[in-house]
Design goal:
The structure is a homopentamer of 366-residue chains. With 366 residues, chain A is α+β, with helices and mostly antiparallel strands. The first copy, chain A, has two domains: 283 residues, CorA soluble domain-like (Beta Polymerase, domain 2, 2-Layer Sandwich), CATH 3.30.460.20; 67 residues, Methane Monooxygenase Hydroxylase, Chain G, domain 1. Chain A is 53% helix and 14% strand. Chain A has ten helices and seven strands. Chain A has a seven-stranded mixed sheet with strand order 2-1-3-7-6-5-4, sandwiched between helices. In chain A, a hairpin with a 3-residue loop joins strand 4 and strand 5. In chain A, helix 7 packs antiparallel against helix 8. Chain A is rod-shaped, with a radius of gyration of 35 Å. The two termini of chain A are 32 Å apart. Chains in contact: A-B, A-E, B-C, C-D, D-E.
């Protein structure tokens, strides 16, 4: 198993603000590395659907007048002018437009007189820790979405629109907004499942045998779960606000669907919190396994040292060169059976220690 | 004692969503492994009871008209068509029907204009960690329950219905709903008791002698308690909502009973939280026992090494082969009583170290 | 000091429910081991007091009519019939009666139209961890109390009643209820004091010298504090509800007294929480002492081994049997002063290591 | 640095209740060790001040009638009769009077119809952990304060009264109450500063070199911070209540001052909580330093043992006494250059191990 | 990398109160080390701007009458008289003026009848842990700011005023207040980014190789994050209060901007909390790496000792000097091939231990 580099998820904790301090609020200053802005429009009525890429913001006006629901899907935040023109066309608040291009926002809902501004964060299955900021503006008949990069979790929604499956083509724009938010929230489940699989495998491995790389992986998992928690947690309050009765742009029928979406957010948060607790448990288990291993190693060392040190000492005594001709000096050396007796003494000493260790429960136990 | 495999409870943290992302909301897509759907009906009045298995949803209509209370008990969520027909017959919300078959929901209450939708999770004594999702729809005169598998904790309720024990046959359908919820909540007690027994035994074993397998079991217990907490905790809010006065379908008399049920939920949560704290205490105790053991092992090693190393050194010195004929070279070897004096020096050294260890409190103390 | 067996307090976390699952709610099924029920009545007016043991519930009626305040003190929950008759006499709710005999309840207050039902838990000085459930029914002019066993903390109250000390005989029944609740809450103080004494002693012992039994006792104390916290904590909300203005049976004068009682509960909870934090501190301190001890042991081992291993090696070299007659073979053995020089080399080596250890700060420091 | 005895602060967690269980509420039973009660009166108007010690409660009446503001400062709680007479003179509630002499109360505010009862705890700079209970009764024109012992933090206030500095003499009695409360809250700052100094010094010492006494001091500091937190925390709610608009005895002008006092309480709590987190950090840092030390010791031991054990073994081999006259028996002993070659082999072995340790990074690194 | 001295950030936890206890409230007693007070005025209308340094508070009056918005920027809190005159000119509350010079306040908002008093704390990029207190008084048409030292984060704002960029010159004084508060909150981001960089580097280093200095740095980082959290956290409530509708001096348009500022505060708090959790993770990871290293060291020691101790013992046995002429005494020494057989026995012993270690998984594994 390849261990994920830890640097990626750490950076995800702090998408740096690029706004130069002191810039007047509401300035749209895209990240110089941001991708060029592309606009794709899906406009539909129960009977028909029109899908087109547009180059110029002015092309939008006829579409808006003709179709009951228009979804303007903006990808790439690099072209300041296009974004500014969109903001002016729909009379969006400059602070909201600034938040669109500063892709470090927490999920939030802001209510303006004639539109809602929703910031959310999407999980990208290909980038397992950085989440992508999605901004939505919901107005009567128009949904404007901004995403950082091409590639999102909305293709099934687009397919449903094209094939007129379910009630989506017959519903108004707030139902489309719900459908997209639901897809965003559901994009967390595959990520959480993948972390869960890695955690399960890690738990099995630690149970089988603790080794050094596991601690790296626990550390890594904890960092990723922390990043995920930071991304998903603000959605709770945001979607909860959307289910309140005083939000004018959300119809009562759609409100029921947002309540379901809220349940999913709670479920993701609950899973992420549970997994963070589980990683803590795995870490504690790992530490105790390491302690146990150390204990076992020390036991082997102690047993060997404790048996052989006295034996070596006895051997050492009879290796001394005291002059045997002087009385009292090492008479054992000339004893008949001196050598076998010495060996016997050694065996007895070793057996005594073994008996002591057995009584202590250090050996011959499981 | 067999150690439970840890994989089972870990999986229980995340019953995976099977809904393909992008599916329109309200689609009923049962798990392909789900059991075929069976319907059992108990319809009763104070005077009589009628119990039958039905094959066809149409058979329900005459029963509903005839009996004041009908309990439609659906087991197995594998037959999408039957479930869909039930939803249409009672005009249930598609999102609720979707939740019925996606058996990963947290406990919750949803209020619709003419019915309540309750999701709950039952503890199965035979499957000690996975909980089973139970969905209930409560309408005037009808209670519709969905469970994943045959086998539940409701047989005593059925028996009371048949024998007309207590007030159950004389009460309306909300009392039946209470009785079933009460049985579900009470199904947690045997599980909690069994975990408590295992925790007690573990505590006793750790107190007697810490060994490696105990840490596995603490780790396992903690995982199971976490899973149990996730299952029971959302019941608190759900049942609390049922005791509020503005729930039209619950009569004031039954509300008192739900308050009692609420007390039981609080009690289960309190026990689970207490046991999780206790497992943390046991784990800390285990770790300190391991540390103490290590200390003891190190003490033995140190005592032996510290005594025998100097002794071996003395023996080594007198085993050197310096030519004794050269003056100043090892005159001790030719001393009268040299050997006994050397042995005496050794004994004195050993005693000196023993005295030092005794003063340090390393030996001859408890 | 005798170490308390840990089994007792652990069991106290889970007084097992004896109700067979599926029993109709409100069934009075006393624990088969419960003591036989005895009823003692104290009825009083400002002028007189009448104290009697009664055998039959019917004997109560004349007393109730005659005396302004009657305290019916029921001890032992083993006689189902007597308890049932009391419930019927005072028209108590069956669920409340069921709670009376299932002695595993958390403290709570339940308000019925004409009576209050209070569940509380009393600390028994003779049983240092299990708390005893006390149930009180407060009606106009009547206080009904149920306790599990003979022996309680109410004898001083009885004495005050008999001797008409203080305002108790001149007050109505709610003041009697307060007096009893106050005695129950105050029964926690001696227990908390005793745990505090044990904690103080433990802290002193750990400070003096960490040994293995202390960890057992910390573990034990933590378990007891957890049990105590579980018992006292629900009293906070319960007594707080009693001080609210909308409780009809409590007069405004008595409400002031309940506020004082509430302060005592807060104080007990505060002490128990503080002691749990202190035990955690003691445990951490213990663990660090054990680590320090280990360090000291390892230092001794390392110093001895590091000094004597090189010395023994030198001695070993000069114990080799190379043929001294072959040139270049061990000429030192025939050197004049070879032996003293070898000894000097050994002393120098030892001093070098001692100097190294001193520089490292391992020896000759406190 | 003298290490403070730990017993003192531990006792401060539990000022034991001396009330005999069962005593009627409102009984004034002073601690037998309490000091005799002394009364000092400061009565003032904007124009004049009258300061006197009185012996008899009756002497108060003329003063109360003459002066617009009277501060009755009672020191020592040992004379039950005097305290009782004061309570009767001002018609104070018996429960409040009982709290005055039971000096174990948490800070609180109680509102009676014509007076406020405030309990607070003062930090005594001479007694660094036990706090002293201060009780205040605030009535129209009269402030009654009770303290346990002579010596308090109010001398600067008295001086300001005598010298008519600031607005104190021109303000009514609620401003005096604020001034005293402010002095009490500010009495915590020197204590917190002293603990902060000790913590800073400890942190520096641990950074320089971890030794065993530091852990004692961390443990001690944690206990003292816990005691301080218990004392100050209830002041938050108490003073917050004093700033509410519905407290009749506090004028709107003085309310602004109490808001400032509230800010100070928040600041003390914030500091105490921060220091408790810092002590935890210092403890973790200490533990890691100890672990690191152990690692270093083990490394030295391992290096020495690993180098000298093989060397001693080689020396031991050539010290064997196999009969060199038998062929194949230790021909090395008779080799020319056998001895230098053996020494060379030893040096090579030692170098090999040193190279291994260097590669492992155990030596020649910082 | 230079390790920051820990003393600096620790002191920042407790900016000591310099007010002598007992001083009447509202006394302006600047810190004797405070810098002399300088006043710089920027007065502007949409059409023009006037910037000047003034020496005398009286010079302000004509400016205030002439210009619609006047920003009086006071730097240095050392000249008590100037500050007092400013307070009198604008009729500011004495307690607020006292807070201005006691630079240890937590961020807060106080509402007076005709002005707001805001206390905030600014992050100084040159002083990486101490934050500087900024006090703002907002009145109709006048903004009065006090800072401790020259140097702040407001130069871009001044530049925007001079160049009339954005809407700042066309807006009223509340927008200026917002702009300054926004700059203060944004001053935390560079600090947080720098701590994040240090944390990332530390994480990488610990992952590569745990060494002793890292623990110092983790300890240091934790202290700085704690200090930062203390500084920023009270801003949440303060700015939240500014966004409420009942604050008269903030216009609805500016309120939207303060909501944006509130989002930034939440983001800083979220980052600081996340980093504190991450430092805890890094610390745990460090500790586990140290444990693993210890394990590895112990393994090497044990392997070497366990192999060579038995070998040395065998060599020691054959080095004994038992008289070979006595029968049974060491006949091996005279055996043909005795020496090679002994060597073979040694090799066999060593191989046996190596096999044992391999089976244990101690060697020849990753």
């Amino acid at each position: 198993m390849v261990i994920k580099p830890t640097r990626r998820h750490r950076n995800s904790h702090n998408q740096r603000r690029r706004v130069k301090p002191g810039t007047p609020p509401g300035t749209i200053a895209p990240d110089p590395n941001a991708q060029a802005t592309k606009i794709r429009v899906m406009a539909y009525s129960p009977a028909a659907i029109h899908e087109t890429d547009i180059q110029n913001v002015d092309q939008l006006k006829p579409l808006l007048q003709h179709w009951p629901v228009t979804w303007i899907d903006v990808t790439g935040l690099g072209t300041a002018q296009t974004i500014q023109e969109l903001g002016q066309l729909f009379q969006l608040h400059p602070l909201a437009m600034e938040d669109v291009v500063n892709v470090h926002q927490r999920a939030k809902l802001e209510t303006y007189t004639d539109h809602l501004f929703i910031v959310s964060r999407m999980c990208n299955p290909e980038d397992d820790v950085r989440t992508e900021q999605i901004s939505l503006f919901l107005r009567q008949g128009v949904l404007l979405t901004f995403q950082e990069r091409p590639g999102d979790c909305w293709n099934p929604v687009r397919e449903r629109l094209r094939q007129a499956r379910g009630r989506i083509r017959n519903s108004s724009v707030d139902y489309l907004a719900y459908t997209l938010m639901d897809a965003i929230v559901d994009s967390y489940f595959p990520m959480v499942d993948s972390l869960s699989d890695r955690l399960d495998q890690l738990d099995d491995e630690v149970t089988a045998r603790a080794d050094n790389s596991q601690m790296h992986r626990v550390h890594d998992l904890r960092g990723q779960l922390l990043a995920l928690r930071r991304a998903i947690r603000p959605h709770r309050e945001m979607i909860n606000e959307l289910t309140r009765e005083d939000v004018a742009l959300i119809s009562p029928e759609t409100r029921v669907f947002f309540r379901d979406c809220y349940d999913h957010v709670i479920q993701v948060i609950d899973l992420v919190d549970t997994y963070r607790e589980l990683t803590a448990d795995v870490r504690d288990f790992y530490m105790s396994s390491v302690s146990n291993r150390m204990n076992e190693i020390m036991k082997v060392l102690t047993i060997i040292a404790t048996i052989f040190m006295p034996l070596s000492f006895i051997a050492g005594v009879y290796g001394m060169n005291f002059n045997p001709n002087i009385p009292w000096n090492m008479p054992e050396l000339n004893l008949p059976f001196g050598y076998p007796l010495a060996l016997l003494a050694m065996v007895a000493t070793a057996l005594a220690f073994l008996w002591y260790f057995k009584r202590k429960g250090w050996i011959f136990t499981n």
